[in-house]
């Protein structure tokens, strides 16, 4: 006589009602803590307790409890001199583990190294994250003067080589939504601060296959970037070289563009991607 053998219970990653996004499934105190952490991460020079509380509309006492708890975990640090709070090493360690989830970083790294050696300039890898460019990886040039975008750095898309390379591959509706949310802040006299001017630049970017940041974020620095595509032909990342304008003169930009396009194609093929349809 056969007996039914029960299958071992599977470990559950989510309860049955995981799709329920109602407040009963939200830990409000944790949600508020994440707001504090996210806001602090946006403030490159740190922030005082009163600044954070004011920005978030939370009481100083509540924000302090969050910061004190995060400090104990090394996720934030406190500088007693200016009385400012900063993102700590613990946050970097947690964030850096994200990079292990995808083969993009792994596939791109040798290409970044080769691109840096071929051009003599810093090579970068970035993706679009919440309407901005998030830099994932970088191989720095050996030159003394160099561009520096450490992993985790964010930059506005309209004033970034990688940002414009990705925007050029987005639909008109997507571009409009990003610009509606983030605007067109002016950083230098060369920044595109009107939609017509930016859209014209994006059309030119699409036509030639690479984007140029011509001192639009920082005077004296240029960047040339091209998109990386996934298996669906969607632009999922960008690769670039950046450096001083003296080493990337205007007349040399097409040559840099060709090298960046070739590097982006290598990474696209490495992740099983294909060009835009």
TrEMBL record:
Which GO molecular function annotations are given, in alphabetical order?
A: DNA binding; DNA-binding transcription factor activity
Signal peptide (UniProt feature, chain positions):
none
Q: Which SUPFAM superfamilies match?
A: GAF domain-like, Winged helix' DNA-binding domain
Q: Does the keyword Ribosomal protein apply?
A: no
Q: Where is this region: Disordered?
A: 1-22
Q: Which Gene3D superfamilies match?
A: 3.30.450.40, Winged helix-like DNA-binding domain superfamily/Winged helix DNA-binding domain
PROSITE patterns documented for this protein: HTH_ICLR, ICLR_ED
Q: Which UniProt keywords apply?
A: DNA-binding, Transcription, Transcription regulation
The record places domain HTH iclR-type at 27-89
Keyword Transcription regulation annotated:
yes
Q: What Pfam families does its record include?
A: HTH_IclR (PF09339), IclR_C (PF01614)
Regions of compositional bias (Basic and acidic residues) in chain numbering: 1-10
Q: Where is the IclR-ED domain?
A: 90-273
Question: NCBIfam families, alphabetically?
Answer: TransRegBhcR
PANTHER family assigned to the protein according to its UniProt record, in alphabetical order: HELIX-TURN-HELIX TRANSCRIPTIONAL REGULATOR, ICLR FAMILY, HTH-TYPE TRANSCRIPTIONAL REPRESSOR ALLR
Name of the protein this chain belongs to: IclR family transcriptional regulator
- What organism is this sequence from? Puniceibacterium antarcticum
Lineage of the organism: Bacteria, Pseudomonadati, Pseudomonadota, Alphaproteobacteria, Rhodobacterales
